[in-house]
Fold this sequence. Notes:
Layout: E1 7-11, E2 13-18, E3 21-25, E4 29-30, E5 35-37, E6 49-50, E7 55-56, H1 59-68, H2 72-79, E8 89-93, E9 101-107, E10 109-113, E11 135-140, H3 152-168, E12 172-176, H4 182-189, E13 196-197, H5 200-208, E14 218-219, E15 229-232, E16 247-252, E17 273-275, H6 283-293, E18 297-303, H7 305-316, E19 319-322
Parallel strand pairs: 3-5, 4-6, 5-7, 10-11, 11-18, 12-15, 12-16, 13-14, 13-15, 16-17, 18-19
Antiparallel strand pairs: 1-2, 2-3, 8-9, 9-10
Helix pairs in contact: 1-2
This protein binds zinc ion (ZN).
The site of zinc ion has 5 residues, from loops.
Amino acid sequence: MERxxxxxxxxxxxxxxxxxxxxxxxxxxxxAEGVCCVSHAHSDHMPSSFAGGPIHCxxxxxxxxxxRVKSKRSKNYLEDPERNNSPLVEASxxxxxxxxxMFMLDAGQRVLYTxxxxxxxRLGIEGARPQKCDVLIIEATYGDPRYRFPDRREMIRVIHxxxxxxxxxxxxxxxxxxxxxxxxxLITMLRxxxxxxxxxxLETTRMMEADxxxxxxxxxxxxxxxxxxxxxxxxxxxxxxxxxxxxxSADVSGWCLGTGGRSGGRIGWGMDQGFAYSDHADxxxxxxxxxxxxxxxxxxxxxxxxTLAQEIQGRLGITAIPLTREKKGQTNLGRYx
Length: 337
Ligand SMILES: [Zn+2]
């Protein structure tokens, strides 16, 4: 006999309640009042305060949170928190960034929370695998039919070729990417071109490293101005790179998606090139993932949640409900990371 489903709503992150248990998914505040699960340490998913109680997260996410929190209380909590202790939670890789997790919850029914996800394996990151569930709570960053990404393996070749071309022509190549996740993918895909890391990309990469995780790079050195590959945060992170007089810059982001797919489209802040390389599922990957999970109901969050919910109902015939913010300040769920 089918059991009753849980309630799902926005509150302290996404709250899933069943019987006496409440799960807090990517909560703003980690608390002992429920089972807290943190998918990854991007700012729109990471808690901003830690009031105690156990937490579910990966080792990499824990290291990143330690490096990113400011308050002494939070640092103390993250020193050695009780972790991954609830038998009602089962974590698996979300394929978004290194250490990002999905969580299968036993909440009367099987509830899968994806956080941000990417189904395509690449560069040592295993893609998210669909799992049969009754309730699916899925991200909607690119949950609109206009988003179809080029194959990531092809994009890796395109980006590598562009950097090589720039270096051959005597330019420094500056790639802009967000510091946690995308930058480490670039370090791995371009390691033969000796990447130098600038600003928060360097800090974040060091934060992630441990005995079982090392990257091959050099810090950016303003005294060494030979043509070189530099990985830097967004365009605002060019501070300090003006010493490289002969350089070409490129944005690496899913938001660079243009009519040609490969590049062009929205290129940020005076850059020379844009590469539509994303660590999120595009619309069609989201639909395929949902179809394979075969849920009875889907909740969408983060981004195009309304559009994605409509499309799920129209194309897959599955009940879909967007989780939208009802009033300002209700949740820390942001636009995208
Ligand atoms: Zn993310």
